[in-house]
Design a protein that fits this description.
Elements lengths: L1 H15 L3 H19 L6 H16 L6 H37 L6 H24 L7 H14 L1 H20 L8 H18 L3 H24 L1
Helix pairs in contact: 2-3, 2-4, 2-8, 3-4, 3-5, 3-8, 4-5, 5-6, 7-8
């Protein structure tokens, strides 16, 4: 009864304040601010995005999305994945430093090496972020990484959405630096959009079983018809 009342109150609030679009925009701002605060130690950047994506999915699915739960998810993600965030930050940082050094002529290889290093940094960043988007409190980061790095290659449109989110965030911060505190919310939206697009196109087990049952029924009816003939 209490859960139904809470759902009804959230629905009524969204109706009064302009619908789910305005509510999602507000949740994006809150999520971006929370991700920024959780990312201050830098090694917690990836777990912060994991918690933010999980929280934004909960909001879209009409699940409990209180700020208290966002903080709890952040603690859970940091506790289990701080090491993954540290390794990711180290690898991406080295690739970016190599790209900048080669572009400035301080490393051998020159401009071609800078392009390769920059491209690898972008690819690793996308793979890491897509790994974060898959996080749940019960998941293991090693398993998530195997899935995320595969998605970065096998789902190019979703990866392009994530890159677009990163690019838009960079432009927003470049134009108005104080917006850096909410820019991560744009990346979170891009991560959730990429995952929703991917899962929307994959058949669910129930639909597969239903189609199998239908096919077997059709086959059985065909066989019986031939027998009658």
């Amino acid at each position: 009864m209490t859960a139904d009342r809470g759902t009804a109150m959230r629905t009524e609030t969204r109706r009064v304040f302009g619908g789910s679009g305005v509510a999602a925009f507000g949740e994006m701002l809150v999520t971006g601010l929370a991700v920024t605060l959780m990312s201050l130690p830098l090694v917690t950047l990836v777990p912060a995005f994991a918690a933010g994506a999980r929280h934004f999915r909960a909001h879209l699915d009409d699940e409990p999305d209180a700020v208290r739960l966002l903080a709890l998810r952040g603690v859970q993600a940091v506790r289990s994945g701080w090491w993954f965030g540290a390794v990711s930050a180290l690898v991406i940082g080295l690739l970016v430093v190599n790209a900048l050094g080669a572009a400035q002529g301080q490393l051998p290889g020159g401009f071609p090496f800078a392009i390769v290093s920059g491209g690898l940094a972008a690819l690793v960043a996308v793979a890491v972020l897509r790994t974060a988007a898959l996080w749940t409190p019960e998941a293991r980061w090693c398993e998530l990484w195997r899935q995320g790095r595969g998605l970065a290659i096998d789902d190019p449109i979703g990866s392009a959405l994530v890159l677009a989110g990163i690019g838009v965030s960079a432009v927003v911060v470049w134009m108005l630096p104080p917006l850096v505190v909410i820019a991560p919310g744009l990346i979170v939206v891009a991560l959730v959009a990429a995952e929703r697009r991917r899962t929307a196109g994959s058949p669910t087990p129930s639909s597969v079983s239903s189609s199998s049952v239908s096919s077997s029924s059709v086959s059985s009816s065909s066989v019986s018809s031939k027998g009658n003939v």
